[in-house]
Amino acid sequence: MDELMAQRVAKLEQLRELGIDPYPPRAARTHSAAEANALIEGFEADEPEVDPIDVAGRVVAFRKMGKAAFIDLMDGSGRIQALVQRHVVGDEAFDRLKLVDLGDIIGVHGNPMRTRTGQPSVKAHTWTMLTKALHAPPEKYHGLADAEIRQRRRYLDLMANEETRRVFTMRSQIVSGIRRFLDGRSFLEVETPVLQEEAGGAAARPFQTHFDALGEDRFLRISLELYLKRLVVGGFDRVYELGRIFRNEGFSAKYNPEFTMLETYEAYADYNDVARMVEDMVTTVAKDVLGSLACTFRDQEIDLTPPWRRLSFYDALKEYGDLDLAAFPDAASLEKELRRRDVPIPDDVGYGKLADEAMSHYVEPQLIQPTFLLDYPVELSPLAKRKPENPRLVERFEVFMGGFEVGNAYTELNDPLDQRERFEEQLRLRAAGDEEAEMIDEDFIFALEHGMPPAGGLGIGIDRLVMILTGQPSIREVILFPQLRSEKR
Asked: What are the residue boundaries of the structural domains of the chain, listed by start?
């Protein structure tokens, strides 16, 4: 125990010796800090005839001036000042203030008022220790600047940084806005399994665990897709889920191994319908939360005003990479060309993965304004329906803004025989060394064999969308508790 903590523990013991519980089981609070400030806003006299109120919060400032003390309390709504005077609370209660430290949580019962300087305050009749903090809060003026400490100990970050509280308040508002939008369109919110027999619905390495009661291995889900489509087969025409996804991948400014995904599926819709819904949903939420269709991300102004640009996958590679995929129709020729250009590509991957690496290299960083990238190679999209006029392509889009992908959508493949062939091709890629190739889910194919109506599906990375709307450069700044290497290591 360090010296400062020992001093706080000694004060805690002094409270107990006085018969005071430093962690009482109940707290009286009639007004939050914001409510108390709002109540006092209308005061003209310094102490009108009003009933006493109870406020509570963390001590973030303490100024003792002779026989009076000014204590700033902070709760989740803001700050309120408490005025504690010796002649009002009595000598014993006033002297006990020496046992109060910054970071403690106290309650104050008293009259709302304004001080001579006009500061909204509560003039204490009594005060109560509610929680004795054994560590000092983050330094008042400089806050908490170290990124790893802020992310590892988010409670300190929230305590010290108003901007952090603002971002996570906005995140909650964004998620609530999405739910309201979808509920208003008669989508049904559902929940699907996190532990799955097969990790399907996306190209990603899964986390694996063991189910002791069954004596079987399970995968943490990498997508919500295949179970939501089962529900469309079962007769729910519009479903969505907001849920946690787990992918055994690395870290970066836009990747965290666990993240929040929104997926929606709508019967009798295609990817064009889904694109219009995405525009409508994002702009509706932006207006509600930001009050604007403009936001700033990494020093670049993003205009969310629809309609958003639509650009085909092939045309985008021509425009930004001077690369015509039609000239490289197979994996061998495309790999040779990309290596000639020094485009970083993994070994032992198929045509679709090579095309995707080229897109990520040349195109993705250029798509700052909202853009739908349309019509992907079939090899890259094993769950999407082929374009009738060109069976080498599928009806798929990814939506980009800020230079990275935010969402993904298809006209969903509902031909069970074609779906089986696509899965089997994925298994061949996995056998050749592609660890991110999809696994086959026999029960999902069995469901499709019972008939799934034409449908449009969507996946939106909630964390990435929040990054854009709140202007945060890293995904770790919009996840309350991002994954980090263990401190023990």
From this structure: 3-137, 157-308+369-477
Is 112 within 8 Å of 91 (Cβ atoms)? no
Residue 240: C-alpha distances to residues 6, 222, 489 (Å): 52, 16, 39
DSSP 133: -
CA distance 238 to 236: 6
Distance CA 316, CA 310 (A): 10
Protein fold of 3-137: OB fold (Dihydrolipoamide Acetyltransferase, E2P) (2.40.50)
Task: Report the interhelical angle of 313-321 vs 351-362 (nearest 10°).
Answer: 50
Tokens at 147, concatenated: 């990124």
Q: Which of 232, 222, 154 is nearest to 194 (CA)?
A: 222
Q: pLDDT > 70: what percent of the chain?
A: 98
Q: Are strands 258-267 and 238-246 parallel, antiparallel or unpaired?
A: antiparallel
- How far is the first Cα of the chain from the last one, in angstroms, to the nearest whole number? 23
Nearest to 254 by CA among 488, 482, 23: 482
Tell me the one-letter amino acid at 282: V
Alpha helices in 161-251 (DSSP H): 162-184, 225-234
- pLDDT tens digits for range 130-155: 999 999 998 754 556 788 888 999 99
Residue 419 and residue 445 in contact, taking contact as beta carbons nearer than 8 Å: yes
Phi, psi of 225 (to 5 degrees): -65, -55
CA angle 188, 192, 194 (to 5 degrees): 150
Phi, psi of 448 (to 5 degrees): -60, -35
Report the CATH number of the 157-308+369-477 domain. 3.30.930.10
CB contact at 8 A, 334 and 324: no
Cis peptide before 388 (omega within 30 of 0): no
**CA distances (Å), origin 26, targets 103, 125, 378:** 19, 19, 61
pLDDT in tens, 271-318: 999 999 999 999 999 999 999 999 999 999 999 999 999 999 999 999
Residues 6 or more apart in contact with residue 172 via CB below 8 angstroms: none
